[in-house]
Structure formats: structure tokens, C-alpha cells
């Protein structure tokens, strides 16, 4: 099928399918969007904005599948994810190539994207030891109490463009492994690698209707939030959309977890290991063209460490800007023309507001890829908290630098920012690191680690304005998110034992 364009003609590009009830189907939508290579502007595919009827069909398929899937033995579920992780490993290179073509990040970074999702799949395969309840015997005379962690039903996930492999893999494997069924809405900007991962999940043995996929924009997001048969919604994306999703979904009686925007600070103390610190800071600020919710987009140089800024700029200048599939590239393009324009506009705002532009990444020379959405590494110093480049999440390769006289002042600065996704301190002092980890009001803390995203044994624990909902994605917390606790209290009597008379008190004795 060729997808219709706005003018009614057709393009000879592939169309992205929906997955409903185990079948990959063509949408009947009249609204389509191009999937564009951000380095070349080539149209790779067309993605439909699913109709309300198609969303209903996906949810209906999931609801039907839940009746049997919820009773599927844990071992059967676990073996599917053992097979799934094997298939992902075997397809790592082609998956990374798809991801790079539609999202823009470098091939090594694309493989990293997939690998961090693969870790969650491996964790899902361990569901037998994760979804265990509790038991207490003889809580009263002959009475036992135990808990069951039972699945909720149909759950849904809404994922962003910046990690089209990792974040879907944060969501549906854990939801499905715990006995739920799932409706996934990938980013409409780069859905192709997500769909390939979904195909591999079906190949691994996920039954029909257990995993479903719809595409779209605001209307589908609202439909997911409102649908009476969806019990829980997981979201990763911008603060504006995440706040909307949380409010609308919880108003409809759903569980919701929303991981949102950030302004992550890296605090550099004068006793830090200089070369390692600056190298890690450059990588964390500019990797993936800064399009990470955990990017170290803000540096706070404390005291004498401010003298290191020229060395930081020199390191940033060595980064190679090119299409992500080209060997040796360090930065690819940002996702879209509008994203590039927004980053450029904020750089210009920083200049107007009086920040010092140490390194200008506008209009970089990328040779044959002049049509791409490229912004090079950009560094501002002398940034004040009132400036727009500090107040807003730029989501591009722009590092803003603030200064502080002491560690206490730096901690106060970080805590004054409304966001709380992640932060890091660079120091060789155990006492300073301990003070930082105790006094900082941010959910995820790195000590000489610039991007402190935990492995799946732990949960992603952003806080404050970066997160809505009590329970984070993956890890132990997500088991609680995707299950409900049922408590059973039981007593058994022998046939020939006669108990006392009627007891009208609440006591179990």
C-alpha cells in the first residue's frame, strides 16, 4: 500500500503498519505523516494517525487476550522474554541502522539505545522472582495471610522520539511479563525501529492481542487517556504533554506514571580529576545531539574549577559532526527542522540576554549533508538563572555554564531549579560527595558519573517537576505499578472439630 499525501497523490515509500490482535494491518486513516531522515531530509516511510475505531479495536484485542494471558504460567511468560532478548542481540546491527536513519543519532549511540532497552527485557525474563507476594502463617489461631501481585488488565505506553528503542522496551516487556496486555503508541517521528522490535516480540512468542500498536498524535493520546478499558498509562516525553497525560488519565481513574523534562546539573569541584571530568561532561552534554532527558545540559563550576572552561571548549571543538551512519561521527542531527530552529532561537536568546557564547554551533559544515538538521556543540558561560537558556530545556547540543563559590552554593542552585531528573558531582572528596548526595533534592544522583540512569535492578527515580506518579519505570517499582496487591486471609477447619459459638467481634482469634 502506498500512503496518500495531503494532495491526494501517492508516494512510493513504505507505510508503517498498525498491530491489532496479532495482525500487522494498514490503517484506514486519512491523516498521514512523513518519517524523515534528519540528516538528508529523505522520506523513509509514511505513518498513519490511527482512527478512533482502530484504537478501540486495539484495546478490544488486548482486553480479549487478557482473559487467557493473565493465567499464563510465569515460566511461559519468562521464556518468551528469554527468546526475545536473544532475537534483539542477533538483530542489533540492523536495528541500529534503522534507528540511525530515522532518528539521526550515531550508530554506536543507536546500539547503546537498544542495549539499555535489552537490559529491561532481560529483567522481564526474571519475572518469576520479581512477582512474588508475601506470606505470614498463624497471624491468628489457625489463620494465614498472604498477598498476590495480580495484573491490572490493558495497559498503554506513550513513547518519545529520542529513544525509540529503549523507552518502548522500558514499557511493554515489564507490563506483559507481569500478566497485562498492552497498547503501545510510539513516536510518530521515528516509529520504524519500534515496529521492528515489535515484530521480533511477536516472533519470540508474544500471543495475539497481548501486544498492540497504534500511531498518531494528540487525538490518540487523548483517546488512550480516556478509554475506559485501559487501566494504566506510562509516558515519557515533554513536561507539557506529560502533565496533560497525567491529569487526563488520572481523572479517568487510571494509574499513570509520567517521566518528563529536565535541567540536569553537573557540579564540578576544584579537586575533581580534570581530564576525566571534562571528557565525561562533553560526552554527556553533546551525545545524541543533546536530545536526552538525562543530558548534562548545565554545568556548575565551583571556585577554581572555573579556570577549566577553555579546556572544556577545546575538547568540545574536537567532536565530529556528521550523519549518524558515517564512521567516526560524534554528533548527528537533531530530529527535525523545527527542533533545529528552536535550538537556534534559544542560542540567539542567550546572546541577547547577555550570556557569553564560548562556542557557536550554528550552521556547522557537514559537507554533503547540508540539508540536514545539524547544530554543533554550543557552550555558554556567565549564564544566570533568569536567562531563558537556563529556564528552558533546550533539548539540543547546548551546554550552559553557571558558577558558584562553594559546594553549598551549588547545591542551593540545583535545588532551586524545579526539575529533578538527574544531577552529578565531580570530586575526589568522599566527604563532599556524601554531603552532595544527602543534601541534593534530585531523584537520581551521579558521583563522578555524568548520566546516572540506573540499571534495571533499580528503578528510574526522577523527581519533582520531572516526574508525575509515585512509581518509576522498570525495576522493582514498575512491578508494583503494573500489578495490584490482593490480600487473602484464610482458615481451614477439620471436619470433626467443633468451634465455639457465634462471635460478633472483629477479632480473628
TrEMBL record:
Keyword set includes Cell cycle: no
GO biological process terms held by the UniProt record: L-valine catabolic process; thymine catabolic process
EC number, as in UniProt: 1.2.1.27
Gene3D superfamilies: Aldehyde Dehydrogenase, Chain A, domain 1 (3.40.605.10), Aldehyde Dehydrogenase, Chain A, domain 2 (3.40.309.10)
Keywords for the protein's UniProt record, in alphabetical order: NAD, Oxidoreductase
Record-annotated Aldehyde dehydrogenase domain positions: 25-488
PROSITE patterns (UniProt xref): ALDEHYDE_DEHYDR_CYS (PS00070)
Top-rank taxon: Bacteria
GO molecular function, a single term: methylmalonate-semialdehyde dehydrogenase (acylating, NAD) activity
Family the UniProt entry places it in: Belongs to the aldehyde dehydrogenase family.
Name this polypeptide is given: methylmalonate-semialdehyde dehydrogenase (CoA acylating)
